Amino acid sequence: MKRVKKSNYVAVILTALLVTGLVVGPTLYSRAVNIYEKIRVLNEIIAIVNESYVDPVEWDEVLDGAFQGLLGKLDPHSAYIPRERAVAINEQFHGKFEGIGIEFDILGGYITVISPIVGSPSDQAGLQPGDQIVRINGEDAFGIIQEEVFHKLRGPKGTSVNITIRRPGMDKTLDVLIIRDQIPIRSITSTFMLDDDTGYIRLSRFSSTTAQEVREAIDDLLSSGMSQLVFDLRTNSGGFLQQAVEVADYFITTNDTLVYTDGRTADAREVYLANPDVGSTRFALIVLINRWSASASEIVAGAVQDLDRGLIVGETSFGKGLVQRQWMLRDDSALRVTIARYYTPSGRLIQRPYENGTHAYYQELADMERENILDSLKETRPRYTTKSGREVYGGGGITPDAYIPSEQFSEATDRIVRHPGRFTFNWGMDYAASHRGTWDSPEEFRGEFKVPDELLSDFERYVRENGVDFDEQTLHGDTDYLRTVLKAEISGAFWGRQAYYEILVAGDSQVSEAVGYFDRAKEFLAQQ
To answer: Is pLDDT of 157 > 80?
Structure first.
């Protein structure tokens, strides 16, 4: 029997399937001659490289690159996803995995617990922020890399792992036996009452559990006396369309269209209607967005704006009006292809142009003058009207009803706060370790504690001791922000990530300014 080399085999199979119509299908079959010629060229290229290239070829890597190149010629959101990344993405959006349940980073060579996931085995075993895992099943864990962490700490539900931790403020290490379990990945980063009337929900993604999480959060806030809600979708890049529809439905009490899609195939054309029995008008609504709020976030913001349910504040959103479907491939990689465009209730397509290529498409978002540029282009954008007749725009994201810019900090401040060494976290852990028992509750801490000048100076010394120099005057322009971050880190060290976020959000200028617009947001309730 004649043997076919692996490299030739790939192209031969593609060619054979093409001839039979199994690859191109009926829609493309009329153009099969041109596609056939291109695949013959691909076959030749693979054969020549395989036979003549100076080094052995890693065909998995090379062909992955070819697949990515093919999808990259379509639009910025169609993509080939290699197996390792596809597994991580599916886990993130399907909302669960099995393991011990910690948010972690590698600091000082050791796995450091940033926060145990609430209700997880790590939480039940008493792990705390700042704990360092120094041994796993008796083996030294110094110098471990992230891939090894996943391999050693994750595992089937019911299996056990022995870890040894070093805790700030304690001289001796602790041995902890943890029984692995299913770990939920929550979409909601934080939810709490900002004041007696104002609820707050920060949503990070639209995964398979998002709608249920949002419903539970809204119910909890209503039971706490909420009469107005800040729904924070900043930097939420999207996720499942169906989950976005269900979340939008919680705000709408009329039998209106929430979003509709249109594509080449019949199954890509859908109209999603609100269920009047699901939504609630028991609270005024403000949706907070920024330039990184995309896709499913824009579906929710677009429905709220077009149906005059609430006020959209912040920055103009990303501008992604394309819908992708994902196919899992035989090697566990994935193919994500744009199958439709979506339209808000007024008929707006909010997709930005992408003809200048992917680099320019994303680079535009980094332009500090982006909002001014978009404002100057309003006259060229298609105009629509909301349910009550307000003018809104298509063709470039969701334009907020009230523009609130993101707070800008100096390069030195950004470099320090976002440093991979997690300076603010480590400094906060050290401070908390020497002050345990000083405050009885996060409420008492929030009311009493302030970061005085001497502590801010101590933090600056700590940063310099760790090899990062900075312009002191530049840094001092952001002292209020730095005080908020440090106070939040200390609170998080005492009481966990919820306490951390409560302080961080309370000091967030965009959130504080957004709350001042509730008089306008309440006007919409009378129209429902």
So the answer is: yes
pLDDT at residue 10, rounded to an integer: 42
Termini Cα distance of the chain: 75
Is 123 labeled as catalytic in the residue annotation?
A: no
Annotated catalytic residue within 122, 295, 297, 333 = 295
Residue 320 a catalytic site member: yes
- Amino acid present at 300: V
73 is annotated as an active-site residue:
no
Task: Pick the catalytic residue from 232, 306, 308, 508.
Answer: 306
β-strands 284-289, 311-314: how paired? parallel
32-52 and 59-72 helices, crossing angle to 10°? 150
* 210 in Cβ contact with 184 (< 8 Å): no
Give Cα separations from 193 to 201, 369, 516 (angstroms). 9, 34, 16
List all residues 6 or more positions away from 1 whose beta carbon is below 8 Å from its beta carbon.
none
Cβ 142 vs Cβ 133: under 8 Å: no
160: left (phi over 0), alpha (psi -120 to 50) or beta: beta
Q: What are phi and psi of 83, to 5 degrees?
A: -55, -50
pLDDT score of 11 = 41
Catalytic: which of 78, 204, 320, 346? Answer: 320
CB atoms within 10 A of CB 93: 20
Instruction: Say if CB 366 and CB 332 are below 8 A apart.
Output: no
**CA–CA separation, 387 vs 392, rounded Å?**
11
**Residues 281-316: tens digit of each pLDDT:** 999 999 999 999 999 999 999 999 999 999 999 999
pLDDT, greater one: 476 or 468:
468
How far is residue 435's CA from residue 486's CA, in Å, rounded to a whole number?
14
| pLDDT, tens digit (0-9, with 9 covering 90-100), for 213-269 | 999 999 999 999 999 999 999 999 999 999 999 999 999 999 999 999 999 999 899
Tokens encoding 442: 């996060």
Q: Sign of the CA dihedral 424, 425, 429, 430?
A: negative
**What is the predicted pLDDT for the residue at 108?**
85
